[in-house]
Please model this.
Amino acid sequence: MTSHILVVEDEAKLAQFIKMELEFEKYQVTHAVDGFSGLSSAREMKPDLILLDWMLPGISGPEICRRLRETGDKVPIILLTAKDEVSDRVAGLDAGADDYVIKPFSIEELLARVRANLRRDTEEEVDLLQFGDLTLNRSTREIFRGQRLIELTAKEFDLLEYLLSHPRQVLTREQILERVWGYDFMGDSNIIEVYVRYLRLKLEQQQEIRLIQTVRGVGYVLRE
Model:
């Protein structure tokens, strides 16, 4: 999926150069020429990352950072700045920026920072696991099948989380026992089958398509 990057930069030649290089790397790019349009674009378009000049007409880069963070927006922000004093960098980070690049910069460095911040943002989003119309939120421990909220016990949740973490991968009974019940599990060897049955009943309560498939003689796999 192509990442959408918002470039907020009033220097036309630099903005065009950055836009051209990002598009060459297959990113979708939107350009805003001042602070007000930059803030508006950030709120309306919900980009995956913002490249934000410090000195802008209207509203400064750090002020845009502050306003976005005050509303709970966690979009990765890289400040582009000619200010290279430590105090300036600290001020930018304190305002809510995730990273900064000092002008003049090499395009290779900028692209590397873009990749790193997009990757970091993706890693932080793994709290939400999804497969088909099934969604599991690790933070809230909520499970939805489409719009339907599903109530699970703690162990049912752990089993579903493990399956969702490895979609389309056949997981053996031994792997599931070790991961979900622990190394020292000495209980009923049919415990997995019991819990898979519980999960299927809840996930397919309204005749939804089966997602947890049995691989005979091996284990289970999450696939349609």
About this structure: The first helix runs from residue 12 to 24. The mean pLDDT is 89. The chain has two domains: 4-125, 132-222.
